[in-house]
Amino acid sequence: MPNSAIDHPHDNVIDIFTRKPLSDISKNNLIRIAPELDGLEMLYGNPENPDKLFSVKVLAWGLRASGEVVGLVPWLDRLVACDEINDPLNGHWEGYYDQGLDELFFAAPLHKVVELETAADYYEYTCDSGREIIQEIPDTIGTHAVLSSDGFHGITLKEVVSWRLLNNGTVEAMLIDEHRMIDTPVLPGDDCLYPADKSDDFRYFFQHHIANKIKSKDPEALAAISLLDES
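Above: the chain's sequence. Below: its structure in token form.
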């Protein structure tokens, strides 16, 4: 009889941060991503507004090592699978929404599933490092990164140019280093791009409509920014 502890050496190993078996975590790793190009949205609820639903644009769809396909949105300071959003303060996932058809649904669209599975079968990568780049897709929803070095007394907004999938399943938001920029427009893969989370000043991702309100010095947006701190 096979020894399951030997056949699946990670099953009994628990990650100290997520409290989940390492085998479960590896199954959730993204192996392929595809941009959302038809304006589909994620709906979420917020405890402070129990009778309302809010929406954000889905950035992309991701194929996990397990075969599951999930929607991906920039959420707070990272890219998150929609169905994993369950925060007592910031909201919880309620489903996907097609505004054109006025339709609520809870699983990835079939055409995106087929696209991702077909691409994953076609492209086979042999990587020597977990940080090798598998894909880089443009940001199509106007995501901005907020950077601050002084507790939000002063902030800098930077447009996210692209999102880079690494071999270890990590997805990085890529920003422009103006000192290294030579050609314009800056396109995905440009040498002047760097990952947002590698900057000590990076704090959050904002949707484009919020970022534009901040740029235009909207009083409500500025008041909300003033409530943010280093915590």
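The chain has two domains: 1-124, 133-231.
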